[in-house]
């Protein structure tokens, strides 16, 4: 049975850290660099296709002492409600107390997307239900970077979330998030 968030059916493999391939070289220097940077609110990992962004992040998060929420983005996630449902499901997988208010906001938002309202609900849901520091990995973020609604949603989270949430965005392109200059 697929989990649901709102009325969105969620594919579990997209919100689970991928398995490490055995034939890959571990990049200790880059893993160490990520460890040094993770206290920041946002870490961007940007490189062309095939450079090993996902592999690096898999190695990093499997060695991290912090809990990790993973979301492998798909082209169809350009729809903001679908994106937010997957985003929330990734968090809920690691923190089951999170998500009831967020799911209600997604269901209540059908037809008239209000990203600012949903972002506020997500921020409060995280604040009330997750006290420990954690990592939120958004892999293949370039697939949704053209969505102004998603850019604004992520920017609001970056600016207003408590300090316990640390984002890693992996992308094939440089990102254009409104929050970046203010971070």
Give a quick precis of the structure.
The protein is an alpha/beta fold and 183 residues long. It is 40% helix and 15% strand.
Describe the 3D structure.
The chain has a four-stranded parallel beta sheet with strand order 3-6-5-4. The chain has a two-stranded antiparallel ribbon with strand order 1-2. The relative contact order is 0.20. It has helices at 28-37, 53-63, 80-94, 100-108, 115-129, 148-160; strands spanning 4-5, 8-9, 42-46, 68-72, 134-139, 165-171. The mean pLDDT is 89. It starts with a strand and ends in a 12-residue tail after the last strand. The protein is α/β, with parallel strands linked by helices and 183 residues long.
Tell me the layout of helices and strands:
Elements: E1 4-5, E2 8-9, H1 28-37, E3 42-46, H2 53-63, E4 68-72, H3 80-94, H4 100-108, H5 115-129, E5 134-139, H6 148-160, E6 165-171
Parallel strand pairs: 3-6, 4-5, 5-6
Antiparallel strand pairs: 1-2
Helix pairs in contact: 1-2, 4-5, 5-6
């Amino acid at each position: 049975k697929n989990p649901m968030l709102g009325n969105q059916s969620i594919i579990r493999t997209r919100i689970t850290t991928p398995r490490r391939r055995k034939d890959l070289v571990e990049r200790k220097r880059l893993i160490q660099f990520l460890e040094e940077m993770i206290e920041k609110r946002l870490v961007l990992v940007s490189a062309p296709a095939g450079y090993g962004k996902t592999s690096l992040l898999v190695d990093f998060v499997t060695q991290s002492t912090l809990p990790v929420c993973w979301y492998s983005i798909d082209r169809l996630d350009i729809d903001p409600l679908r994106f937010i449902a997957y985003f929330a499901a990734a968090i809920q997988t690691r923190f089951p107390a999170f998500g009831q208010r967020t799911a209600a906001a997604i269901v209540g938002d059908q037809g008239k997307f209000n990203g600012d309202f949903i972002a506020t609900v997500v921020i409060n849901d995280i604040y009330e239900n997750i006290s420990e520091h954690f990592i939120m990995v958004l892999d293949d973020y370039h697939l949704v970077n053209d969505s102004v609604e998603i850019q604004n949603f992520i920017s609001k989270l970056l600016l207003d979330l408590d300090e316990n949430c640390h984002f890693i965005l992996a992308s094939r392109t440089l990102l254009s998030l409104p929050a970046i200059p203010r971070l």
